[in-house]
Request: fold
Amino acid sequence: MRKQLLLLFILFSIVTQAQEEQRRVIVTAVPFLNIAADARAAALGDMGVATSADVYSMQWNPAKTVFNEKEQEIAFSYNPYLENIVTDIALLNLSYFNKLDERSAFGLGMRYFTLGEIELRQYASDPGSVAKPNEIAVDGSYSLKLDPNFSMGVSGRYIRSNLRIPQTTTVDTRAASSFAVDVSGYYISDLKDKGTYEGRYRWGFNISNLGPKVTYDITGERFFIPTNLRLGIGYDYVYSENSVLALTFETTKLLVPTPKDFNNNGQLDALDFETYQDIPYFEGALNSFFDAPDGFSEELKEVTWAVSAEYTYSKRFSMRMGYFSENLDKGSKRFMSLGAGFVLDQFTLDLSYLVSNAPVLNPLQNAIRFSVRFNLI
Reply:
């Protein structure tokens, strides 16, 4: 049964890839880095570059960490993947941060994406072999306040993707690895009296996963990792100490070259792929703003956006909702998300649920994702 599911998944991937070639969807290696690792961000429409700081800030905007109200916190999250088909594929996340003083903080994190067990056999009587493909990212970050309202942060990330499956071909496959960095900034204004409430602005940016391409075999084929530029702005309506409404808007641009017909023969073929592979990752990131074949209109299609609302009462209970949109020609990911957060003494539980309205299946649809946080001081 597992083998049949694997074959169906491979067939679906081939069909999807054919559609992506026609629509020039940008495909990267290690896409698990783009999955929201925590339930709070997932409930807000997969955003976090300009939201308030928490222990998961490292994935979205490392600069936020120093603005965290807590001094030290550790957290764990679980995200089931393709839950309607299998039960052993999931993204797990472990995060920790520590404020060194009022001006600086550091964070550590690990994301582990397991594709479960895949049992392979050539014949029914064959005892077969079991493969356990997985991917992992280990992070470290540092943030520093440059003034009371603005901070900058940097992260370093080691990425390892082990998708090797035993096979009878002569191709020598291996685990792929790379190292990437993030550079980010975060601003939060002072509260200003607006009459019936107090308000403040938030904004942030993050250039994430900027690093070398990866290769999975000795042929030397190299694949881009998902370098992103995230921009966000938000506003807090503070009605009282016990009542806060936070609204946030965020956009994301994938800083990876757009696939196109380099040899001008009217189609995307192997020669185009070879040319695409030869583009250096840093040059590709710079050119990604103006390399789309259809010009500026297509560049705009490559920008995703999300909006969210989060209401917090007495710092004990939060209700969240968000909406994420991606152009139909560039991936078709569109969904609404809902969630809640509960605080009990030093313990916090966050939950989220995704409702897709896209023409393609979302692998996180109908899955309940949760995160737990522990205040260590």
User: Anything to note?
Assistant: The first strand starts at residue 72 and ends at 80. Residues 2-375 form a domain with the Porin fold (CATH 2.40.160.40). DSSP finds six helices and 19 strands in the chain. Residues 2-23 form the longest helix (22 residues).
